[in-house]
Specification:
about 250 residues; mainly alpha; 2 domains
């Protein structure tokens, strides 16, 4: 499980904060970011996340890896908004028989939505760097998230690494047998790998069901117990929410 927990910091002050408070603050900040109508506040959130990132000594590369997919989504969103949304036309051109126009107001709208995505992803990324998965699940349970959903997430988190290891073994065996020397053979090998993993999923699910029933599983997974809230952590959390709430109001 070191692939996702490699950069988890347990000796940082933010890691020692009660996960319920971190979840609550993160949810409030997400609401503020997603409801903001300008550019400034999401970038302030991103800047604060970067400061925490460097304080926790998380490699910047790890942060960028988590931003790759959101950045691609933002690129496509800005492109589509610029070319197909808006009233003002800055320039137009033809491409393969299609007439496309550049809309500056569409570009601004795309950048505004992109800033929200960056801000929201930064919040979730910092939360993942300072909160272990078990603490995160325990916090969700305290917030009365359905128990069935939590159990599904815990099983998925546990066996995604098992399937990843098996996928790596199958891929390496295929690669040693020249399974990816050509594009056609690569697609065929990838299809075989996917089919093998699907069969492994069913096999693991049946084995887990049988083993848990034999061990007295009654439909409830025991989660860790929460300690009492600390007054200092509550006051600090309220202070952070108040500061960002004021910034949200000012930058609207």
């Amino acid at each position: 499980m070191e692939i996702l927990s490699e950069y988890l910091q347990t000796d940082h002050w933010l890691s020692r904060v009660d996960p319920r408070l971190k979840l609550g603050v993160a949810l409030i900040l997400l609401v503020l970011v997603l409801t903001h109508q300008g550019f400034i506040f999401p970038w302030l959130i991103t800047a604060a996340a970067l400061v925490l990132l460097f304080q926790m000594r998380i490699p910047f590369k790890a942060y960028l890896i988590r931003l790759l997919e959101p950045l691609f989504i933002i690129f496509m969103l800005v492109l589509l908004k610029t070319l197909f949304t808006g009233q003002d036309v800055l320039a137009s051109f033809s491409l393969w028989g299609w007439t496309l126009a550049v809309h500056p107001d569409g570009l601004l709208e795309g950048l505004r939505l992109g800033s929200r995505i960056i801000g929201a992803v930064s919040i979730v990324t910092i939360l993942s760097f300072c909160t272990s998965f078990t603490h995160f699940m325990a916090g969700l349970s305290w917030f009365k998230v359905p128990q069935s959903l939590i159990e599904i997430l815990m099983f998925a988190y546990r066996y995604i690494f098992v399937l990843l290891e098996e996928a790596q073994v199958i891929y390496q065996a295929q690669k040693n047998r020249f399974g990816y020397v050509t594009l056609a053979r690569g697609f065929q090998s990838f299809g075989t790998l996917t089919g093998s993993l699907i069969l492994k999923v069913f096999e693991h699910s049946q084995n887990v069901s049988v083993s848990m029933v034999q061990r007295g599983y009654d439909g409830n997974l025991p989660l860790m117990k929460h300690r009492s809230f600390k007054r200092g952590e509550i006051l600090a959390s309220c202070g952070w929410v108040a500061v960002f709430g004021i910034l949200w109001k000012i930058t609207r």
